[in-house]
Amino acid sequence: MQKTDYSIIAQTYNNRYKEDYLPNIEKLLEQIIIKNEYKAVLEAGCGTGKWIKSFKELNLKVFGLDYSKEMLKIFKKEDSNAQIINADACGIPLKSDSVDLIFCVNAIHHFPDKKKFIAECKRTLKQNGTIAVFGVDPHIDNEWYVYDYFENVYKNDLMRFVSVDLIKTFLNEAGFNEINLSIAEKVFNERIGDEVFNDPFLIKNHSSQLANLSEQEYENGIEKIKTQINNNPNTVFKTSINFYIVSAKK
Ligand SMILES: C[S@@+](CC[C@H](N)C(=O)[O-])C[C@H]1O[C@@H](n2cnc3c(N)ncnc32)[C@H](O)[C@@H]1O
To answer: Ligand 1 centroid vs 132 CA: distance in angstroms?
Structure first.
């Protein structure tokens, strides 16, 4: 399985956030923190720090952990009080029972050993702490036009992405309680004909799905889309995907 190279993606990664993308995630995280009066929070696979930066007002001790130095460099350029940790999420370099909330957004599919990551969260979290894993599940949702036009992307996603059911199983096996699955966000849009080329996710290095393709595979997909638009300028390019949150308590 190809490993996504975030040193290439880093420079343009934040373009996805120019539009108000996934606003509910921030709200849900804030609710968890405020309701439980949490003080110490870690994001695993924090990338450029989009979510951590939103906690500025909450007066928290915040850790941002990521494997990619290039993603963290972008994060560091912007103002943040977070403590940045360059490490693999499967070996969290923090003391046991030291964090109230560990969350990850669109990242667990990259971690080499998901079960180990969850066991590490169990160790690092304080009693009554929360783990919250946000992400898509292609085993449930596949209405994304990218899957139709770029060969092997859907097949690869089925292999790359752990299902929400399996995350629940790992949480259960690790001894977490109150395991809960719900939809955090519904992403729905339809772009007609040429409008599809305004979609930030159609640019090669804006998503791991397309970044993982060879130049030729990517060009083949773009050609397929252009041919389709030539044949029918009103073709609807649809995205209808759920972002799930799987959460549990220690
Ligand atoms: C799609 S990005 C998500 C970034 C951020 N959570 C967000 O929502 O904007 C996935 C992130 O996971 C990081 N990552 C991949 N493998 C990792 C690992 N084994 N340990 C820690 N971070 C990892 C990547 O470097 C990248 O920054």
So the answer is: 15
